[in-house]
Design goal:
heterodimer; A: 250 residues; TIM Barrel; 37% helix; globular; B: 205 residues; alpha/beta; Rossmann fold; eight-stranded mixed β-sheet; four-stranded mixed β-sheet; 34% strand
Chain lengths: 250, 205
């Protein structure tokens, strides 16, 4: 059986892994390569590196880190943050990244998804969406959660799939950093509406949060601080999930 | 010991190279037939679409030399490179493959898969053993490897399948016929299990 995936996200700022709460109160944590090695040894299924400075401060992509990570680990990893062209895709893929995540740039120019998937295959195009609930629906936000685009999250995700995205990563702004659980309703809706895999992100605080979101249909669950600060150990989490009847790689 | 990683514009070859070098195998990324001749192992990587990949491979003029060198050394096809070992694929029209293993490559169709299954088949799935082979020495039925693909091989003779994964369909994971070996998953991205498979391959050289 295909296993549900547990993904650790590493927000990288000037070459260091950091974790913010609701995109604020950023604190320094650790060296990305060191953390990547640690997580791999603990049994994480995938890693994501977001260059959190790139999208609004134009700091470019941390190519050196991509290369170092590719040398260090033998599991798939995704690069995101500040990717805005097919050239950006090529640069990180050539340095060993398996997937590239696009967010704001795809909102501004959806054709980027098509161009990248035609060029490199849809398996490496992850459409990352910052979602916030407004009343009875969810809106797509950009610029680190500061700007509402007015796009409907479900519609945008479906459009992304049609354009060639191979995966959707849904980051719920409402739950991010609060540790009260993932947005189950949104992830359930997306899993039902899409053919491609859905990665749930934002809100992980306890093992049961992972269990709940994977049970409603998410294919993978992503978290950062609970892993960085050792609140949850990847190995223990996977054992608990297995006991709860969820297929995981042990 | 040397591996020739065949470069036909298939994109990222770095990870395969790193994984092989880690095992002490010298790697050359090449589109020259001389490098195939001096190598102990040929590797055919691949991402992207079948038709374009076959067209690009043809342009290198290496198809003949690959066949020639198969007489005395193995060829490892990875992911799309594995699919290219078959007779033909139906990805974006019908395209002829290398014809080294009889069979064809067909798409996953959502309606034919268990409820909730996604396309691409992406992530860690378990391998089940169909037949014994040196490439899976010391591996266990149920070991996880990393897949990412939307098309899968349907061999004419299931006996060419060493291991398969359950994705409603019996998806060939490792295929082998003589010196031709194919991995639908990415051994270079499959943690310790992937490493073991490459080690086994090294021992076979």
């Amino acid at each position: 059986m295909l296993a549900k995936r547990i993904i650790a996200c590493l927000d990288v700022d000037h070459g260091r892994v950091v974790k913010g709460q609701k995109f604020k109160n950023i604190v320094d944590v650790e060296d990305p390569v060191k953390l990547a090695r640690r997580y791999t040894n603990e049994g994480i299924d995938e890693l994501v590196f977001y260059d959190i400075t790139a999208s609004y401060e134009d700091r470019g992509i941390f190519l050196d880190i991509v290369e170092d990570v590719a040398e260090a680990i033998r599991i798939p990893f995704t690069i995101g943050g500040g990717v805005s062209s097919v050239e950006d895709f090529r640069a990180v893929l050539n340095r060993g990244a398996d997937k590239v995540s696009v967010n704001s740039a795809a909102v501004k120019r959806p054709e980027l998804i098509r161009e990248a998937s035609e060029r490199f295959g849809n398996q490496c195009v992850v459409l990352s969406i910052d979602a916030k609930r407004n009343g009875d629906h969810w809106d797509v936000y950009i610029k680190g959660g500061r700007e509402n685009t007015g796009l409907d999250v479900i519609e945008w995700a479906k459009k992304g799939e049609a354009l060639g995205a191979g995966e959707i990563c849904i980051n719920s702004i409402d739950t991010d950093g609060v540790k009260n659980g993932f947005d189950l309703e949104l992830n359930k809706r997306l899993a039902e509406e899409l053919t491609i895999p859905v990665i749930a992100s934002g809100g992980a605080g306890k093992p049961e949060h992972f269990r709940d979101v994977l049970k409603v249909g998410a294919d993978a669950a992503l978290a950062a601080s609970v892993f960085h600060y050792d609140t949850i150990k990847v190995k223990d989490l996977k054992k608990e999930l297995k006991e709860a009847g969820i297929e995981v790689r042990l | 010991m040397k591996a020739a990683i065949i470069d036909y514009g298939a994109g990222n070859l770095k990870n395969v190279k790193t994984a092989l070098e880690e095992l002490g195998i010298e790697c050359v990324i090449t589109d020259k037939k001389e490098d195939l001749e001096t190598a102990d192992l040929m590797v055919l990587p691949g991402v992207g679409a079948f038709g374009q990949a076959m067209q690009n491979l043809k342009k290198t003029g290496l198809i003949g030399p690959i066949r020639e060198n198969l007489k005395n050394k193995p060829l490892l096809g990875i992911c799309l490179g594995m699919q290219m070992l078959f007779d033909k694929s139906y990805e974006l029209g019908e395209t002829e493959g290398l014809g080294l293993i009889p069979g064809e490559v067909v798409p996953f169709i959502k309606e034919e898969l268990r409820e909730g299954s996604k396309i691409p088949h992406m992530g860690w799935n378990q391998m089940h053993i169909n037949k014994d082979h040196p490439i899976i020495k010391d591996l266990n039925d149920g070991d996880y490897v990393y897949f990412v693909h939307s098309y899968y091989a349907r061999p004419k003779d299931f006996d060419d399948v060493v291991t398969w994964a359950d994705y409603t369909k019996k998806v060939p994971a490792i295929v082998a016929k003589g010196n031709v070996i194919g991995c639908q998953f990415h051994p270079e991205k499959s943690a310790q299990v992937g490493r073991k498979i490459l080690e086994n391959l090294k021992e076979m050289l």
